[in-house]
Input
Amino acid sequence: METQGPSPFVAVCASCDVSLLSVDDMKRHAGHTDDLRRNMEESWEFQIAFLELLRTKHQARRVSANEVYKTYTQDPQHPSLQLTQWKSLNEFVFWLGQEGLCTIDRKPDGLHIAYISPIHRTPAAREREEDRRRRIHKIRLLRENSTSVSANQGKDGSCPTPAGASGQFDSDQTMSTVHIKSPAEFQKLLSSSRIVVADFYADWCGPCKAIAPLYEQLSSSLSRKDVVTFVKVDVEAQKDIASTYNVTSLPTFMVFREGKAIEKVQGADPRKLQEVVKKLVKEVEGGSASGSGEGSGSSSGGSWRGAALPRGYTDITDQIEPKGCELLNADEDFGPVRVLFDTSKPSVLAKKEGAKDWVESGADDQLLLFMPFQSMLKLHTLQLTSLPPTDDDDDEAPMRPGTIHLYTNKPHNLDFSEADDTPPTQAITLTEKDWNADGTANIGLRFVKFQNINSLIIYVTKGDGDGEKVRLDRVRLIGESGEKREMGKLEKIGDEAGE
Output
């Protein structure tokens, strides 16, 4: 049959592939589509902000969704749930479970939720998340392009090139960053460049792409040939490198000096990344990072350590809150508690006279050290340095620690009777063979028991020998630091007035 008259009006919406048969249809759909796009953007922003709070505050721990949302709503800058596609918090939480972004449990007090890091999500979940990211990116480009067209359309009616069409979103075009192609190439750079800053990323990771422009900006402005080198490591293509350095979340940024890992930043935290990198480069330019770093006085990278760092972990001793520390049964004739965290080499090893930069027990061979932290820590290794005199004729010479009990997440110090009655998180027995030539014991911890800790108590229950005193010169904490804690007023517990 031959159609008479003009051909029917047909248009297709580019963003949702809907056929529109009239100008009125097109106008109605345009208004509806604008609402849909706004709703999609609000939903995306809400999802990102909620998951980032869950990740940074609770990591992979299972927590009440209501408690997380209560914390979320305390920040007025956070997107509102009411503007999203979900009608209730429960509907949103179930959606997170269906999408493979979190695990969900029903409890008597409501739904409980646990974050799944991108690297542990299923390929299907990662692809769905990447598809959402692409759709949001497309919506924003369309809006920006529409605004640009209406504001800048030329006299001849031509339109400017759409934002992003020239490829400015492709960070690979920045030539100052080295894209690692093999473990051998990475090791070669660690050997040839004094400082290496590494960005561990994946193509499917939205936060990785969000922070990529900042990383490239830092790379362009701070790179120095054979001094400071910025690299990118694709964890999908270089799984061996990611495994070697214990990269478990994305993005992860690591800083290496003289081939050793000294800093680790997890998550797309622009402020922290800039602080870490710029501080290190300033050290290099000022010449304070020369040599092995011993005695340089920097908090993590330049502090003295009596043993090597475990691969993939950093010195996080600077996360101790010194003002809140307490040491019981310490002899006042020796150094205060803060000398244990001093970044310099112990005076005995540095051959310095005069300074008593260590602590000794007083009445017997026990010490009880309480350390609160500025952030939540994952503790992997404890390094203790003890350098008693080697004069065998001195009957009063202090001993090294022999038996140690560790306690985590205590709000304040225990007294000795409490410590004796409390099962330790981990008990450790040290013998002479555990101490190296620098007088340091490198103590591996049961990592699963030292996740998300906000304080640590080291209880030296007895020394290694028959003496009456024990000595400690340095304490180093090795692991990963997380979200900064809000430090309230620190008070000593149990002191009587006037003591």
